[in-house]
Amino acid sequence: MSTTTAPAPSAAGTPAPQGDPTARNRDPKRRKRILMAVGGALVAFVFVAPYLVMVLDSLRTSSDVKSTPPSFLPKVWQWDTYAQILGDERFLNWLKTSLIVATGSTIIVILVAIPAAFMTARHRFPGRGLFLLVVLVTQMFAPTSLVVGLYRQFFELNMINTYGALILTNAAFNLAFAIWILHGFFSSIPLEVEEAAALDGASRWQILRRVMLPLTLPGLVTATIFTFIAAWNEYVVALTLMIDDDKKPLTVGMRAYITGYEQHWDQLFAASVIAVVPVVILFAIIEKHLVGGLTAGSVK
Amino acid sequence: MSDSTTVSPGPAPVAGSGDRRSRMPSRGGRRRRAGRIGQVHPLVALLWLAPALALILGVVLYPAIKLFDASRGEYSITGLRKGDAGWDNYVKVLDHPDLGTVLRNTVVWVVAVVAITIVLSLALAQFLVKSFPGRRFVRWAVIIPWAASLVITSQLFVLLYDYNYGIINHVLLSLHVIGTPIDFLGDDSWTMFSMVVVGVFVSLPFTIFVFIAGLGAIPDDVMEAATVDGASPWQRYWNITLPLMRPALMIATVLNVIYVFNSFPIVYTLNDRNPGYLHDTTITFMYKLAFKSQEHDVGMSAAAGIFNVLLILVVVGIYLKIINWREETSR
């Protein structure tokens, strides 16, 4: 299945074969479209609803979150929870960790994936297939399954509670996606472009930097955003390696809002909103390219 | 890969590889096919791949070795290695009284989530390729559970499912679907069902988008021909769409099996308050053995981890077979 060429067939498709609809059968058609729009709204609602509850709960008082019977809208709209957690040093520490780890992993992944993807997409050499196979296999391994090994490794390296351990782990396990997506973009550039640059005497490195990278900007953006989000959302490794409260990332740290001793539901959900909303927007931007990258190896 | 035989003979091309490439076009038609893609010396390639290889070897392969290493050791509760255990940890895992339950849970969890996800996604993808006002927004809405952190979604569902305060019980009660609230996460007969719902919810977006891509790849003229031949919509779906969707279906199934099998946050978070291993899958079982049980047994957990890795490798093998992976990834 080719994902990148998906729109092509419909674009090349023939115009509606049955000729112009008369005024009489245009009405049922319109009704059908309206019905479908309503159906679409319902589908959208199902997917949005839980997160709508999250936003509404972040604007209630904590006791209102746990009231019987629950109400759909907050009894009191409490906006200052956001100001509260943004002034909370614990929260700022978690946010800092999330930002450092996600940014660090993303930079490493991009720097490492670009040369690898360029080499495998535009060149042939013995071992190329083997390398791509290794990449595909690592894509299948979530760090979850290796978490005990990761813990032992970083324990022995004395790297428990360090940003470095999380950055390296996130970088390694998200590298595959970045290589695939860039591989796909590099492969799609006509060879003549590269040949022209080579004729002008550009070195391989110059070709990559001056010619290829500017042409694969959408791929770079996709790989960057995807890696950032994956590292931002990572949970198991952070839960295992980050023991000090002030070193935890958001996903792990915010659990502290709900313990046996204190229950700050409003703060938990405000923190969740801050962690989720920017990421969803970023994700929507790269939606078009995601499937191709994730099912790569099968599309080629 | 055929490269090993076609690498052009001659002086070591490391330094002069740039020149060689620029001369290619002048070689004319004879070398045209080989010349279209630049041949490079394996050492040059290795240089460009080195950072990626270092990362994969250092942070994927090495932990896997450490995992195996740990599975053969005996550890104190504080995680210090006391000595060699041989295969004892594997025997302990296989003899664990809860292993049967955990394996059954894993099978139910993976099969239920993947099967329901595939069926629902087929229908939703079919709907989302049609054009209607607001389709863009619906597609964006569908993405949300994919983009959001799994832990946050799971924590959210813990509250939505709540016996006293949960909105789901509230709605069902108000609609008189149920007479008394359901303890979705505390009642053992409901726990797996509740987890599967969340599992399906977060697996749908990826699967829907794979199917949308698959549907987009079906040529229009095939459908038109069938319509002209008088095939009903259902006939067209069963005889044309589904067979042509086979590759997308296979890929979505295998990838989902791996993702759902590896899924930790949902099972872990929704089960947080339940003691023991009654609703655990092999992944959370492994984690709890090392970090959350009374035993804190790193060695045993590592042995369980090795079983997990082997299982994943089997599925990866099936995947490679399905996508017809050959060493030569043609062009």
CATH superfamily of the domain at 88-294 in chain A: MetI-like
Q: What is the annotated CATH architecture of the domain at 99-279 in chain B?
A: Orthogonal Bundle
Protein structure class of chain B: mainly alpha
CATH fold title of the domain at 88-294 in chain A: MetI-like fold
Write down the secondary-structure element order of chain B: HHHEHEEHHHHHHHHHHHH
The interface involving the most residues is between: A-B, 120 and 128 residues
Task: Sum this structure up briefly.
Chain A is mainly α. Chain A has 14 helices and one strand.
Task: Provide a descriptive summary of the structure in words.
The complex is a heterodimer of chains A (300) and B (331). Chain A has 300 residues and is mostly helical. In chain A, 71% of the residues lie in helices and 1% in strands. Chain A has helices at residues 7-12, 23-58, 62-65, 80-86, 89-122, 128-140, 147-156, 163-187, 191-199, 204-215, 217-233, 236-241, 250-253, 265-294; one strand spanning 123-124. In chain A, α8 (163-187) runs antiparallel to α11 (217-233) and α9 packs antiparallel against α10 (204-215). Residues 1-19 of chain A have low confidence and may be disordered. Chain B is mostly helical and 331 residues long. Chain B has a domain at 99-279: MetI-like fold (Orthogonal Bundle). Chain B is 68% helix and 3% strand. In chain B, β2 and β3 form a beta hairpin. The radius of gyration of chain B is 26 Å and the shape is globular. Chains A and B meet through α1, α2, α5, β1 and α6 of A and α2, β1, α4, α6 and α7 of B. β1 of chain A pairs parallel with β1 of chain B.
